[in-house]
Amino acid sequence: MIDQLHLQNLKTWRDSGAVQLAPVTMLLGSNSSGKSTLLQSLLLLKQTVASPDRTVHLNLGGDEAHDVVHLGGFDDVLARGVAAPRQFSIALSFQRPEGERVRHGRFACSYGQTASGAVAIQALELSTVARRFRAVRRERGSYAVYVDDEARPRGKGPQLAPERSIALSAEALALLGSDGAHLQDLSLALRRELEGIVYLGPLRRRPERDYVWNKTAPGDVGSDGRQAIDALLANALLPSEHQGSVLRSVSHWLQRMGMAEQLSVRAVGRSGRYELLVHHDGVVANLRDVGVGVSQVLPVLAVAYCAPPGSTVLLEEPEIHLHPLAQAVLAEVFAEVSQQRQVQFLVETHSEHLFRRMQTLIARRQASTAQCRMLFVERRGADAVLVPLDVDEFGAVRNWPQHFFGDAMGEAREQARARAQRLREVTGG
Question: Could you tell me the domains of the chain?
């Protein structure tokens, strides 16, 4: 689990401060406030780790098929008005499951620009509770490597350049000897944490009338949910001890949302094509023939149950095309799945209904303030500012953000006032 994130000079974030993350973290705020950048910073690291080029320092997107964010060039991601040194940084800390060699780790990296315009690491630090390793850029692409609090570097040279933001070169590891093994374990733990990030964006594919399935389980639902149906088909049709479990769980939540009683799968002849059927109010209909909300929420529910335990799921606007009750139930999905499956959710949302249901879950003791954090992002001038919402054990917010959610009580008072005025006009009173 990623438990802390810190951005400096990245797009709208001059300095985010240490952003504390929980098993379920909700990011609230107006459009273009900077919420998505928090998610994008993690996706930048994920796609950098996945790059086939070991020498890349930070993959800003656009070159590889698996890239999910495309942020342009160095000047596009550097916060405006940054004076020398023109650098931005990403830092995070994480926890790994019991039994792994590295349980707690921290990553911090600052990035600058080379004369050719490429992004280059200026300083990389990887650390655990007891050990610390640093690679610091010098002149002409040369790096100095330091261990713990040693004042003198263990070595210098271009051959010691970091790779993919999270590791040092084989030459550096060999230079460090037994310390190189510790660093390698730390890099591997960080790599696994980043590889475990799953992303589902706000723009999801519309449903098809039927689907060609290759009789395998996809590794991911895809950033636009394109493989969500394949995941459901695999769970329904491939023999295993968990066969049908995901389909049943998804059906359960659709029922809680009032959108369907059950999902089922049906082969279309012998063509290798399948259709997904929605059972609702005694009617069985093709997924294509029901409201768009069902097809849009399916990837959200599928990723919740298909992401491996220990994953971090990044969700943007999971509530789109959903009616208020369904939006509220999403809070229950995230709270329950995070506890049962040890999946972390980082959710960017505009839904007041989702937010208020999370408050209710805390008040009911079905969730806790330690398990669920709510963070509000706002713009102050050109800069993004993060305000952690102070939620008490009864779900009440002590520092409620003004002018964001609708004023339900205020609207009710205004309606009552207008109704009284019109009654006086009608009666002449």
Answer: 1-196+309-429 (3.40.50.300), 203-307 (no CATH)
pLDDT band at 407 (very low <50, low <70, confident <90, very high): low
SS3 of residue 248 by DSSP: helix
Contacts of 408 by beta carbon, 8 Å cutoff, 6+ apart: none
Tally Cβ neighbours within 10 Å of residue 115: 7
Rounded-to-integer distance, Cα 259 and Cα 58, Å: 43
Q: Is 162 left (phi over 0), alpha (psi -120 to 50) or beta?
A: beta
Residue 200: closest CA among 184, 222, 183: 222
pLDDT tens column, 199-209: 999 999 999 99
Using left for φ > 0, alpha for ψ between -120 and 50, and beta otherwise, residue 310 falls in: left
Q: If DSSP codes are grouped into helix, strand and coil, which group holds residue 33?
A: coil
Lowest mean pLDDT segment, chosen from 53-57, 64-68, 248-252, 294-298: 64-68
Rg (CA), the chain: 25
d(CA 230, CA 213): 6
Joined together, the tokens standing for residue 95 give: 């926890």
CA distance 124 to 133: 8
Answer for the pair 46, 195: CB distance below 8 angstroms, yes or no: yes
Query: What secondary structure letter does DSSP report for 397?
Result: B
Q: How many angstroms separate the Cα of 351 from the Cα of each of 205, 324, 405?
A: 21, 9, 9
Full DSSP string of 179-230: HHHHHHHHHHHHHHHHHTEEEE-S--PPPPSSEE--SS--S---TTSTTHHH
**Do 306 and 231 meet the contact criterion of CB atoms below 8 Å apart?**
yes
Q: How far apart are CA 106 and CA 108, in angstroms?
A: 7
